[in-house]
# Entry
Amino acid sequence: MAKKILVVDDVKSELNLISHYLEQAGYRVITAENGMEALEKIEFDPPDAIVTDLVMPEVTGLELCRKLKKDPATANIPIIACTTKGRKMDQSWAKKQGVVGYVVKPCTAQQLVDAVRFAIL
# Structure
């Protein structure tokens, strides 16, 4: 059975592109357009991994990560950031929050898929 990946991005075109890349690689994709929606979906149907933007209104990708890592039920779900924030400082801070993979937009399908594969090994 294909691994289920939750993609979280508030920009619809980015959400669609990332989902397309992962579906083409054989993953089953579910989506959320913001962090609150992601938390609701995770509660009822936890994914095998999460790909999230970091810059979103209400609940940012880093806040989402912190909430998930605090909860023993979701702490082991790998989280991959897919974001425009490409500075080393941003990457370092994200990893301290529990992000295991980091891809800077715009990215290739291969970069994204490699990050997801590595995270769910």
In short: The chain is about 45% helix and 20% strand. The CA atoms of residues 88 and 94 lie 10 Å apart.
